[in-house]
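[Automated response] Your request has been received and processed.

Submitted sequence:
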Amino acid sequence: MQNILVCTYDEQLLPEKKTPEAIARDIRTATDFTLQPWELKLIPAWIKTVMPVWWCCKIYARSSLPCKTGLMLWNSVALIDSDYRWEYFMQIYNYTNKAISIEKYTRLCQLEFAPHHWWKNNFWSEEIPSIEFVVDKEKFDNLAELYPSERGEGGLWSTGKN
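Generated structure:
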C-alpha cells in the first residue's frame, strides 16, 4: 500500500490536526480575499495530493465557519478522487448581505482521507496508509508528472465533459 502524499510549497498551509483525536485536518486559505453579498468564489488552498487507489479525500466546512464568518462551503462536502492531481480549492459562498474579508492562512475547511465503499470488497481492511506531508515547490508544480494518473492535471469539473 502506498502512502498518502500531501504536497504544498508553503509550510503554513500544511493541513493540521488541532487535537490528538481530531478526525479531520484543518486547511487554510492561501490568499486574502473578499466575498461580496451572495457571491461564490473558488479559494485556493495550495495543496495537491496523491492517494492510493480506492481512497478519497473529503473536504468539509469547519463547524464554526457559518457562525463566525457568515460563509459556507457551497457544495457541502467536496469529494476528491484518488486520481486528481490538480490544486485543491474551497467553494466558499457568502450568504449574508455584507461584504466579508478573510485573511490569508485563515482556517476555513477541514479534510479527511478515507477509503470508499468500493474498496475491492475489502472495506474493513486494516491497511491504512500513512500520510506524508511535503513542502516542496518543485514537487508541487510537477506533481502530475511525478505521479501520473489517467486524469492527470484535469482540474475542477474535468470529468464532466460528456
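Summary generated for your ticket: Residues 83 and 149 are 5 Å apart (CA to CA). The first strand starts at residue 4 and ends at 8.
If you did not submit this request, please reply to this message.
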